[in-house]
């Protein structure tokens, strides 16, 4: 049983462009301009899922994809940090930021820990391992990074060493026994 997963990072939002923790907002208009190039590079899918976040849902629409919402693809909940800049949070809560970067189980922002995002990613991959065919999943940088380190068996702290660009594609393949990272960071157009 062969499975393929194409994860697409949602289009850039004002928060991501300005170096702020994401909140539920639509992609910037420039994201829609690039969507055509991405859409033309996609192969037929047996199922298309999207994060519940507005950025992912609107990206799916811009790509012309009819996607079902999949909660496992949700963006990390950044709690009270949502919408605030990294610099502001570093000044306001340096201990919390240090804990967040050094301890995957920490959620000093009152939201979701990186470890919780990783558990969702692992559950997604386990679920898809039993499915044949191609799945397209529109989501966000942190969940994509978490799936990458899960598949590679790398420490969860490795997520901070992976860059995921808006509208980039990350591909995984499975033979039913194990997943492999096929390509990462592919940007169409």
Percent of residues in β-strands: 15-25%
Q: Could you give a short account of the major beta sheet?
A: 6 strands, mixed
Q: What distance separates the N and C termini?
A: 32 Å
Main structural class = alpha/beta
User: With helices defined by DSSP (H or I, 4 residues minimum), what is the helix count?
Assistant: 7
User: For this structure, what is the CATH class?
Assistant: Alpha Beta
C-alpha geometry: globular
Strand-helix topology:
Blueprint: E1 3-9, H1 14-17, H2 29-41, E2 47-50, H3 54-62, E3 68-69, H4 86-92, H5 94-102, H6 114-129, E4 133-139, H7 141-152, E5 168-174, E6 179-187
Parallel strand pairs: 1-4, 2-3, 2-4
Antiparallel strand pairs: 1-5, 5-6
Helix pairs in contact: 4-5, 6-7
Characterization of this structure:
Helix content is 37%, strand content 19%. The chain has 189 residues and is of the alpha/beta class. It has a single domain (3-187), classed as Phosphoglycerate mutase-like (Rossmann fold, 3-Layer(aba) Sandwich). Strands 3-2-4-1-5-6 form a six-stranded mixed beta sheet. A hairpin with a 4-residue loop joins strand 5 and strand 6. The longest helix is centred in the middle third of the chain and has 16 residues, at 114-129.
Summarize the structure.
By secondary structure, the chain is α/β, with parallel strands linked by helices. It has helices at 14-17, 29-41, 54-62, 86-92, 94-102, 114-129, 141-152, and strands spanning 3-9, 47-50, 68-69, 133-139, 168-174, 179-187. The model has no long low-confidence stretch (mean pLDDT 93).
Provide keyphrases for this structure.
189 residues; Rossmann fold
């Amino acid at each position: 049983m062969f499975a393929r997963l194409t994860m697409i990072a949602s289009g850039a939002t004002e928060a991501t462009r300005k170096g702020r923790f994401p909140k539920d907002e639509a992609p910037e208009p420039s994201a829609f301009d690039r969507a055509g190039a991405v859409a033309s590079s996609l192969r037929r899918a047996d199922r298309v899922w999207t994060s519940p976040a507005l950025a992912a849902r609107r990206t799916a629409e811009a790509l012309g994809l009819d996607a079902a919402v999949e909660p496992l693809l949700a963006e990390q909940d950044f709690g009270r940090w949502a919408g605030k800049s990294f610099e502001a949070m570093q000044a306001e809560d340096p201990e919390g930021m240090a804990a967040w970067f050094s301890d995957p189980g920490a959620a000093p922002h009152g939201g979701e820990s990186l470890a919780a995002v990783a558990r969702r990613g692992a559950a997604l991959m386990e679920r898809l391992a039993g499915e044949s065919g191609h799945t397209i999943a529109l989501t966000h940088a942190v969940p994509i990074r978490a799936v990458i380190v899960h598949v590679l068996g790398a420490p969860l702290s490795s997520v901070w060493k992976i860059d995921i660009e808006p509208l980039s594609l990350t591909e995984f393949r499975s033979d039913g026994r194990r997943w492999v990272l096929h390509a990462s960071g592919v940007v169409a157009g």
